[in-house]
Amino acid sequence: MSVTIDITGLPLERVTVVPSPLAELGMALHALSEPGHHPDLRGWAAAVSSRLEPSLADRLCEADFLWHSTFSDVFAPFAGIPGGRAVPGATLAEELDLLDKLTDEQFVNAALEFTCQLRYDVQEAGPLHAPELRRRSLELAAARGAVQERFTRRLLTDPPAVRAWFRQLMLDCDDAFFADTWARVQPQLAADARHKTELLRRKGLGEALASLSGAVSLDEEDRVITVDKLVAGHTATGDGGLVLVPTSLGWPHLMVLHRYGWQPAITYPASGSRPQAPSVEQLTLRLEALAHPVRMRLCRHLARAPHTTSELADAHGMTAPEISRHLSVLRKAGLVTGSRRGRYVRHQLDLTAVARLGSDFIEGVLR
Predict the structure, then answer these.
(1) Which of 37, 14, 19, 15 is nearest to 253 (CA)?
(2) How far apart are CA 153 and CA 158, in angstroms?
(3) What would the pLDDT profile of 228-258 be if each residue is shown by its tens digit?
């Protein structure tokens, strides 16, 4: 599965790479609520959590479905501004001003997309104006707990009051911990944005997108960007632009904003934050390769020392062509390497690739 972005007619000058303090704050809140997704940030998360005032921690619990299991579009308000040409603000206050420009319907739909299961990339009435969706959103919120149900009911009853509450919550988070965090990560994000912008200018969109992640590709002929995800979706830039948002706290997540009527945006881990995880297709190849008992025995043999095809055939009581077929599967999956010595090719298990398989799997499904 994948998310595609039709960029027909999109000129390079409408592709913007820019950090977003509000998006990074959303990532910070996600890391605080889901430390298992971000093992490198556990120390930071523990230190921040220990310093939070109880009243602020309680308010964060009220709205944590906005960032706990996934990432709400309320953290990318620039994308909802009409015209599709807005970009993230330079400061948190500027981005919260952009949030204030969204309609109540936009804000509610973005906030409740995960509790009322709205169709994301098609035009559809939201729970503010559709009684059945309103009932369903309250029902699903109740299944998540009384706190979430109360918050959802408040949001549907008085959206302006909840928007003001949310704005103050973000400002209080900034005072409590995020201002210091942003001061630390902003230079890295700005440098990454400059690098990607220069790459875009000198080598084109394809090279720039490939540098974001191995999961992002561009079909130059059809003018379609494809992002390898565990969901299927589609959007188009139309007369608007495309925004690329680097994140330091968001690794390994790679997110595509493809909400109907909103400007497309890709949030990607900034260079140097962590190594890129393989695609879901590559993970599938590796898992399938190791599922066969013969290939598992070959891996055990090749983990100890390199061997030729003939040596493996003799050791396992099989023909050389049979061994070659199994080795081909392991090579295609990136688990076995070969080096030539005269007339012979010696095969060896890539222990680094195998050692990363568990974490690659986690990163792949979280992306």
Answers:
(1) 37
(2) 8
(3) 887 788 999 999 999 999 999 988 888 999 9
